[in-house]
Specification:
Blueprint lengths: L1 E2 L25 E3 L21 H10 L12 H15 L36 E3 L10 H14 L32 E6 L2 E5 L5 E5 L16 E7 L2 E7 L14
Antiparallel strand pairs: 1-3, 2-4, 4-5, 5-6, 7-8
Amino acid sequence: LALAPAIQAQQDSAYMSPRTPWGDPDFQGAWENRTPTPLERDPQYGTREFLTEEEAASRAQTGGGLPDGEEGVIAEDLAAADISRTARSNSLDSNRPGQKISGAEYNSFWNAPVSSRITSLRTSQVIDPPDGRLPAYTRVALENWEAREAARAYRGEADTWLDRNVMERCLLRTGLAMGEMNVPKDIYQTPGQIVFDLQYGVVRTIPLDGRPHLGSAITQWWGDSRGRWEGDTLVVETTNFNNMQRGGDVMPS
């Protein structure tokens, strides 16, 4: 599963990205993940990665959020988005159980983009598989889901903090945030490593010096990440996750 950057401006071919004093692309700063580009591609676009300029203009006009020059949120657009998301959450997906439910507990107030202006022509953040859709769960993932649901059956109401997982309690989360409500993050760089400082006390330090992954016997909550630069693109591969992560629509990465 490959993801395009959440916000990708259409850039002139002569553009050069900022560089750190040691020559790496400079990603440092405070960032947020709100974007009008959906995580998954609408099936109507098939394998088409980009909108036309006309399609982008139309989507910008009909999207919710804060219009240029206005400070108030368009309540009608946000209410319509809530109705649509609730309808999707009530439909089943046997290949990805729970996928359509995740996120339905938030209303659109928490997801309203800072602008209705389209900043990317991409039809989805997911770029691989070619259809821009999250793939179906593997057989093992489905079996794990079923086992978890069976273990939770007939337990009664969840009345104490012991009945709630750490992500639901906003203590820890899984991986990097994608397609959720706004999650601010800070990025720091030093020679040979990059650091993502996220919400919920998550700090991911990613070596860029070519060192090997940890041995397979060592597992961690956020896994073991190793990064490298391919031109101006940061590529991060993460292995060695423990088995304590919750299931859900987007697994740790």
